[in-house]
């Protein structure tokens, strides 16, 4: 979709002989897709293998504890596989300290690191990340008037930006009849 949009932007700008519209750029995460907590390829609310942003501390704990790890990692001393391990996929996505994650992976792969220890690190990260979101959601849910004001402000801002862009497009096409 981005490339199609940019092609339209380039054609329009070329047609009017000016840089009226701006090409869009992808904003990509380092993680392409999180697997479901059950190890399935896709996290999905409908499949029941997702962690909601509004999840309680207990729901997060339960979800992390039930995450798929490595079926061959039977004893703590056994070397573990990181590939396909949901816990490490989540750590890659949410733990900003890449060196910490690399050390955990190396320790897990050589053996001597329990699944529960890795899950504990992930749970601490998710609890810290989601707790302020949960508090903000609860605060906003209690004050619907504020939510409506925020939505109205956002709508007005979007309308202003769209009107400005449409004005530039109309001027570039010679369709602006009023000053």
Verbal overview:
- The chain is an all-alpha fold and 179 residues long.
- The chain folds into two domains: 1-30, no CATH class; 32-157, Tyrosyl-Transfer RNA Synthetase, CATH 1.10.240.
- It has six helices and no strands.
- The protein has helices at residues 2-16, 57-65, 86-94, 98-110, 115-142, 144-173.
- Helix 2 (57-65) runs antiparallel to helix 5 and helix 3 (86-94) packs across helix 5 (115-142).
- It is elongated.
- The protein starts with a helix and ends in a 6-residue tail after the last helix.
List the keywords.
Tyrosyl-Transfer RNA Synthetase, 6 helices, mainly alpha, 179 residues, single chain
Largest sheet: none
Count the DSSP helices. Answer: 6
**Proportion of residues in helical segments:** 55-70%
Unreliable parts: none
Query: What's the overall average pLDDT, rounded?
Result: 93
Which structural category do the helix and sheet elements fall into? mainly alpha
Count of all domains: 2
Radius of gyration: 24 Å
Task: Give me the CATH fold name of the largest domain.
Answer: Tyrosyl-Transfer RNA Synthetase
Secondary-structure element series? HHHHHH
Total beta strand runs: 0
CATH classification class of the largest domain: Mainly Alpha
Name of the CATH superfamily of the largest domain? Tyrosyl-Transfer RNA Synthetase
Anisotropy-based shape: elongated
Distance between the termini: 35 Å
């Amino acid at each position: 979709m981005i490339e199609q949009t940019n092609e339209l932007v380039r054609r329009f700008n070329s047609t009017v002989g000016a840089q009226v519209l701006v090409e869009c750029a992808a904003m990509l995460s380092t993680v392409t897709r999180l697997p479901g907590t059950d190890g399935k390829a896709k996290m999905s609310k409908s499949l029941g293998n997702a962690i909601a942003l509004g999840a309680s501390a207990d729901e997060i704990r339960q979800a992390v504890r039930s995450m798929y790890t490595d079926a061959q990692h039977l004893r703590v001393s056994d070397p573990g596989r990181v590939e396909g391990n949901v816990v490490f996929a989540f750590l890659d996505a949410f733990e900003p300290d890449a060196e910490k994650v690399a050390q955990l992976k190396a320790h897990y792969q050589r053996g001597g690191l329990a699944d529960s220890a890795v899950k504990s690190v992930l749970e601490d990260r998710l609890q810290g990340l989601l707790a302020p979101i949960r508090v903000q959601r609860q605060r906003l849910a209690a004050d619907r008037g504020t939510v409506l004001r925020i939505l109205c402000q956002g709508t007005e801002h979007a309308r202003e930006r769209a009107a400005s862009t449409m004005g530039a497009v109309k001027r570039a096409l010679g369709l602006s009849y009023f000053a």
